[in-house]
Amino acid sequence: MKASKRLRRFLRSPATHSLLKPGRNCWRTESVSQTGLLVDGGDYYRAFYRAAQAAEHYILISGWQFDSGTALLRGAEAEDAQGTIHLLDFLNDLCERKPALRIYMLAWDYSMLYSLDREWFQDWHFNWSTNERLKFCYDRGESFDASHHQKFVVIDGNLGFVGGIDLCASRWDERDHRPDNPLRVNSDGSSYRTFHDLQSYHVGPVARQLAELFQQRWQIVCGDCLDLAAPDRGPRPLVFDPSIPLAAQQVAISRTEVPQSRGDKPILEIRQLFLDAIDAAERLIYIENQYCSSEALSDALVERMRQFRRRRLEIVLLIAKDAEAFLEQLSIGIAQSRIIRRLKAVAAETGHSFGIYYPVSIAADGTEVPTYIHSKLLLVDDRFLSIGSANMNNRSMGYDTELNVAWDDVPGSRLARSIRDARVNLLAEHTGLDAQAGERLGAVDGLVDYLNGLADGGTTRLRHHPTRSLSEENLWLLTLFPNGLPFDAEIAREAQDKPGDRVADSFITKGLTSLSRLFGGWGASTG
């Protein structure tokens, strides 16, 4: 117990120690020459397009979903582009024009439950209708119904992208999230809702570590050992404009991976990273996420709020207004509603400031259109920042394959100031306020009260989250499933206690086999 308390004090120290501990809450830390954020699909797709054009040796693309017809450029940029701007044709054209270039794509082998939302026979289409140096492989991991959820790209071992955005349908949007944007359409011309997400970029040696991670996963699920040797060149200049640069010299890589064979322990670095960051918080916790249903993370927030001798926190959550699909409402939605009610109650009891919100845009007829929050961001005290693929649900903490990156520094440094600037930048997007509000959005003390005032007034984009678990027409289901369907159970603790057992065994022992088979890999909807 004494050793545990000493470790917690060490991790919380804001003056000299980093939260990032390889072997505990991250795989590795590595240096970068340039790093930062790309906000929303428009900025990321443009950056990917331009970076891929400059590729010389290889492009590695890992994702939960791809769509061959996804337009990487829109509007005037698409009209000015030389050649195709649609994903698969663009990648194939690169191979045709560059004889030394190889492209590898790794995608989750999705459940049939979501077959209507996916391109059929994609492995055949991507492999046999394209250049022989473009290789596509489905991630058919050994876990029962886990999904491959890592979303990252590596180009020539010099540049990497990591975050929550897939190169697929219904992800592109611009930062104003206007409801009537004619460019926010899929390849078939259908429109979709406004959509917010984040991707990071990294120039320098960390890209080689990301390439190694891709190699490991490819060999596990595809059976081939990729030779990615390339000339050792110095960092190349950026060929795109960052949304938000960060003044960092290193970045950490954290993972969630289930055991591939009996006797191995699961990799739960992201889970531990989030727990350590929450426990270390002294002033502010700022979260953007698709969900807030993780038992482990909610317990950590409650524990931190109940440490009465420590400073009271400002806790800001931005999450999607409604669950995306019916099964999510029945599982994650119900659990999330219960967790948020608990967090609100504990905050009121302990004197912490707790605010939960979602942004809207106003249509021409005055209708409020919620912007779907799909980002996966955790920021603490304007000195720690993590983004990636991991949702704040139980699956991402201990079941699906996930990948996050993190930056950490001491208060008052250049990195800490740029992390604060990133928070202000994002809050300005979500509220619709201009740069003149930056000073007020950047203040920590009283931040929740200020955001509450904006949400109360209804004159900005910010709204109070209703915290309901189900849409109005489905409320009757609570009589059948008062605790929700157990497809997002907290299984990480069991996996640690019984290393080598398939994580799915915990579902089976709970008598969920039939439901899991009925709904298959329902986790696809967490994309």
Write up what this structure looks like.
- The chain is α+β, with helices and mostly antiparallel strands and 527 residues long.
- Helix content is 33%, strand content 20%.
- The chain has 16 helices and 21 strands.
- Strands 1, 11, 12, 13, 14, 15, 16, 18, 19, 20 and 21 form an 11-stranded mixed sheet that branches. Strands 5-4-3-6-7-9-2-10 form an 8-stranded mixed sheet, with helices on both faces.
Task: Please describe the topology of this protein.
Layout: H1 2-12, E1 28-31, E2 34-39, H2 40-53, E3 58-63, H3 75-80, H4 87-97, E4 102-108, H5 122-128, E5 134-139, E6 152-155, E7 159-163, E8 195-196, E9 198-203, H6 206-222, E10 244-246, E11 250-257, E12 267-268, H7 269-280, E13 284-289, H8 295-305, E14 314-319, H9 326-350, E15 353-362, E16 368-370, E17 372-373, E18 377-380, E19 384-388, H10 394-398, E20 402-408, H11 414-431, H12 438-442, H13 447-457, E21 462-464, H14 492-497, H15 504-509, H16 513-519
Parallel strand pairs: 3-4, 4-5, 8-17, 13-14, 14-15
Antiparallel strand pairs: 1-11, 2-9, 2-10, 3-6, 6-7, 7-9, 11-12, 11-20, 13-18, 15-16, 15-21, 18-19, 19-20
Helix pairs in contact: 1-7, 7-8, 8-9
